[in-house]
Amino acid sequence: MRDIGFIVIEFNQASGQPGIPYGSDVHPTLADAESAAETLRAETAAAGRRERYVVVELSVEDDGW
From what superkingdom does this record's organism come (predicted)? Predict the structure, then answer.
């Protein structure tokens, strides 16, 4: 496995389904991803929504190519 960065996952308020927020990016550090998640939380709270956001580490199988 090779770690390539961190992403923000959004859990939809109504359905609870996970997804990647529109315009998301792979963040090189945990701090960058947490900052992005906090920004998304503030934006959705200001709009009266309650989506949940979590940060996860993104890894890929390194099969030696």
Answer: Bacteria
Which long-range contacts (C-beta less than 8 Å, at least 24 apart) are formed by 31-34?
Answer: 32/6, 33/5, 33/6, 33/7, 33/8
- Would 39 be classed as within a structural domain? yes
Question: First CA to last CA across the chain, in angstroms?
Answer: 13
CA distance linking residue 6 with residue 13, whole number of Å: 22
Q: Based on the structure, what is the number of domains in the chain?
A: 1
Tokens of 29: 């550090």
Report pTM. Answer: 0.84
Model confidence at 65, in pLDDT bands (50, 70, 90)?
low
Rounded Cα gap, residues 30 and 46, in angstroms: 24
Closest CA to 13 of 40, 44, 51, 42: 51
